[in-house]
UniProtKB/TrEMBL annotation, chain A:
Its cofactor is [2Fe-2S] cluster; FAD. SUPFAM superfamilies: Ferredoxin reductase-like, C-terminal NADP-linked domain, Riboflavin synthase domain-like. Coiled coil: none annotated. FAD binds at I62, F63, Q64. CDD domains: DHOD_e_trans_like1 (cd06219). GO terms for biological process: pyrimidine nucleotide biosynthetic process. [2Fe-2S] cluster binds at C222, C225, C237. This is Ferredoxin--NADP+ reductase. Residues 1-95 form the FAD-binding FR-type domain.
UniProtKB/TrEMBL annotation, chain B:
Residues 141-449 form the FAD/NAD(P)-binding domain. This is Sulfide dehydrogenase (Flavoprotein) subunit SudA. GO terms for molecular function: iron-sulfur cluster binding; oxidoreductase activity. It comes from Thermoclostridium caenicola. InterPro entries: DPD_II, FAD/NAD-bd_sf, FAD/NAD-binding_dom, Helical_ferredxn, SudA-like. Residues 19-128 form the Dihydroprymidine dehydrogenase domain. PANTHER family: GLUTAMATE SYNTHASE [NADPH] SMALL CHAIN, GLUTAMATE SYNTHASE [NADPH] SMALL CHAIN-RELATED.
Length: 281, 466
């Protein structure tokens, strides 16, 4: 069992848990992820490592309550434990030779982009961070990002924080203003990453995306997470999850993410009753 | 006077039309009377040819004689001396090519049902006997085992019996390897696997789950943590795909994914278990091995109307066990032999709607000695399916070889070892099972685990003396 050391509610749907997992904390690097299982009948879900503390032996995850498992996870408190926590998995991000970078987070993707920005900033790279949310109530990690960036742009789809538009609009503007990025790192919903890649492609700016396909084992033994990159089939859990965004078949990724939509709805409905029980107990 | 019946005492089974709608075990096992009757068919030969066919050298005539005498507890103990997982072997070993193939009674009539008797003894013992396990005296030496499949568990069990402190590192949340994620409940009940594993724990074997060697820890760090030897039994879990168009459509699974969802994650119980699986109405399983049979029979049990086995050679070349093919046919699986997929077709939303195939004819024998299938021109046709499961084989996962220095592997990614000792190119590191041979059988993996345990013991003793 893996104990929850700390819980933070970042916005009504997004929660942070710091989990005691010394072996994972020892090796974790930005770009890697873990697979967890909340309880014994539970499913295995992948979540990116948002932060780690090697001395304390803890790993932080940030997740949005989108279905049965994340709702259940979100109902847990500090002191509770989860059944399984396995990692670090996937290939760590590579930043060699980068002098100037834009790190882009869309919604919850901001939590995954955070360790990347932190690492780059720590390496002395000049970092622009662009994060976007649907509205101002959903903004997360603004202060944390401010600390690990040279410039921070926070935008909302509805303009409720004073800046209206998508992250891709801000990026385009920055590039047109003459920002010379060696690399753009984009993490968020597949459609957002696709749009960012469309922005950078004409300029030939290297663009790294972190893909989020359906996973089971996370160790390369099933191929459930396969994606097409540059015409080749790759397993995101072992070959990624970082890939060259200009080579990714995003339409296929988006399609494959929909395979279990109906099952996910059934599972969530069923859990809504059970969770009611947990929360009222 | 031995029972001279030419046939095995039949084993009761669930009716095919009932069992193809449930995940309960198909074969129900012998009663005490049936076991005694079958055991009396054994001639107790002096030269024991059956034993030479068993990779873990179970003392077959001795345990069968004990069953014939009604001494079931002693029969089990006799088996357990050399086999740590008898309830599993009795069920999944291909006895027809191992112990039973060598049985003298098989020359005229059917061989003695050694597997069924082994299974009987193990099941009887589990049901009736609860004895505190006698742990061997500890020798204070630590050995690490990577992977908790049949090879790792056997190696761990044998080393624990010799007094070693054994830690097994497993990547999944549950121990058992292919026994828990691959072989379905209807062939090998999972609570039984768990009981065999619990028995190993009682011997002092520690199992640490959620440990991906190559990621969470690597082999060098295991030595740093004081392990004197390492056994790699990480299997061959990397699925192969065909490389034909349409393989990434929604509804195409590797057999590993399909079976892992069903067996390990219990997706057949969804939504009581949280993991879903797509339940197709018309399912094609590509391949002709045991994994293909398991996937096809599982798909049928999930409620499919039509399940096809699509295999490019003929039935004679099928690598699956005869018994499994027979069971699959009884359950209504449709065999499309000498048929090869050329592409998978999708609808406008990207879901599978069919599989284009060609008919094959068998040509000259190829390098493997089997007649090579060649496509028949103009034989293209479409099989209307909504699910395709690819079961054309697996190879070793590169995770360990790519993170362990000095470990020699061949061009197929299999770890190279000395056949007699399972010693790898790296000192103190041993390997066995599918990680060395590529995908093979449970019992061969167990045999390798056993051999490696002996070699590890000799290695550590020699090191202590020098």
């Amino acid at each position: 069992m893996y104990r929850i050391l700390r819980k933070e509610i970042l916005n009504p749907q997004v929660k942070l848990l710091e989990i005691e997992a010394p072996y994972v904390a020892r090796k974790a690097e930005p770009g890697q992820f873990i697979i967890l299982r909340v309880h014994d009948e539970g499913e295995r879900i992948p979540l990116t490592i948002a932060d780690y503390d090697r001395e304390k032996g803890s790993v932080t995850i940030i997740f949005q309550e989108v279905g049965a498992t994340t709702r259940l996870l979100g109902s847990l408190e500090a002191g509770d434990a989860i059944a399984d926590f396995c990692g670090p998995l996937g290939v760590a991000s590579h930043f060699e030779g980068v002098k100037k970078a834009a790190v882009i987070g869309g919604g919850l993707g901001t939590a995954i982009a955070y360790p990347q920005a932190k690492k780059l900033f720590g390496l002395g790279v000049e970092v622009d961070v662009i994060i976007g949310f649907r509205n101002k109530d959903l903004i997360i990690l603004e202060q944390e990002m401010a600390k690990v960036s040279n410039r921070l742009f926070v935008t909302t789809d509805d303009g409720s924080n004073g800046t209206r538009g998508f992250v891709s609009d801000i990026l385009k503007q920055r590039i047109e203003e003459g920002a010379q990025y060696d690399v753009v790192i984009a993490i968020g919903p597949p459609i957002m990453m696709k749009v960012v890649c469309d922005v950078t492609r004409p300029y030939g700016i290297k663009t790294i995306v972190s893909l989020n396909p359906v996973m089971i084992d996370g160790t390369g033994m099933c191929g459930g997470c396969r994606v097409t990159v540059g015409g080749e089939t790759k397993f995101a859990c072992v070959d990624g999850p970082d890939f060259d965004g200009h080579l990714v078949d995003f339409d296929e990724l988006i399609r494959r993410l929909s395979i279990y939509r109906e099952d996910e709805r059934i599972s969530l409905e069923r859990h809504a009753c059970r969770l009611g029980g947990v929360l009222n107990a | 006077m031995p029972n001279m019946s030419l046939k095995k005492v039949p084993m009761p089974e669930q009716d095919p039309q009932v069992r193809n709608r449930n995940f309960s075990e198909v074969a129900l096992g012998y009663t005490e009377e049936m076991a005694i009757e079958e055991a009396q068919r054994c001639l107790n030969c002096k030269h024991r040819p059956c034993m030479s066919g068993c990779p873990v050298n179970v003392r077959i005539p001795e345990f069968i004689t004990l069953i014939a005498a009604g001494e079931f507890e002693k029969a089990y103990e006799k088996i357990y001396e050399t086999n740590s997982l008898p309830a599993i072997c009795g069920r999944v070993c291909p006895q027809e090519t191992q112990c039973e193939q060598q049985c003298v009674r098989g020359i005229k009539g059917e061989p003695v049902a050694i597997g069924r008797l082994e299974r009987f003894a193990a099941d009887w013992y589990m049901k009736h006997i609860t004895k505190p396990v006698v742990k061997s005296p500890r020798n204070g030496k630590k050995v690490a085992v990577i992977g908790s499949g049949p090879a790792g568990l056997t190696c761990a069990g044998d080393l624990a019996k010799m007094g070693y402190d054994v830690t097994v590192f497993e990547a999944f949340h549950k121990a058992g390897g292919v026994l828990v994620y691959g072989i379905p409940e209807f062939r090998l009940p999972k609570d039984l696997v768990q009981r065999e594993i619990d028995a190993l724990k009682a011997l002092g074997v520690e199992i640490r789950t959620n440990m991906v060697i190559g990621k969470t820890l690597n082999v060098d760090e295991l030595f740093e943590e004081g392990y004197e030897a390492v056994f790699i039994g990480s299997g061959a879990g990397l699925p192969m795909f065909m490389g034909i168009p349409g393989e990434n459509l929604n509804g195409v699974y590797s057999a590993n994914e399909f079976l892992t969802r069903i067996n390990l994650m219990k997706a057949y119980k969804f939504p009581e278990a949280d993991t879903p699986v797509f339940r197709g109405r018309n399912v094609a399983v590509v391949g002709g091995g045991n994994v293909a049979m398991d996937a096809a029979r599982s798909a049928k049990r999930l409620g499919a109307d039509n399940v096809y086995i699509v295999y490019r050679r003929s039935e004679a070349e099928m690598p699956a066990r005869l018994e499994e093919v027979h069971h699959a046919k009884e359950e209504g699986i449709i065999f499309k032999l000498l048929t090869n997929p050329t592409r998978i077709l999708g609808d406008e939303k990207g879901w599978v709607r069919g599989m284009e195939c060609v008919e094959m004819a068998l040509g000259e024998p190829d390098a493997s000695g089997r007649r090579r299938p060649v496509p028949k021109e103009g034989s293209e046709h479409v099989l209307e399916v909504d699910t395709v499961i690819i079961a054309i084989g697996t190879s070793p996962n590169p995770l360990i070889r790519s993170t362990t220095t000095g470990l020699e592997t061949n061009k197929k990614g299999c770890i190279v070892v000395d056949e007699n000792t399972c010693q790898t190119s790296r000192e103190g590191v041993f390997a066995g099972g599918d990680a060395v041979t590529g995908s093979a059988t449970v019992i061969l993996a167990m045999g390798a685990g056993k051999k490696a345990a002996k070699a590890i013991d000799e290695y550590i003793r020699a090191k202590a003396q020098s």
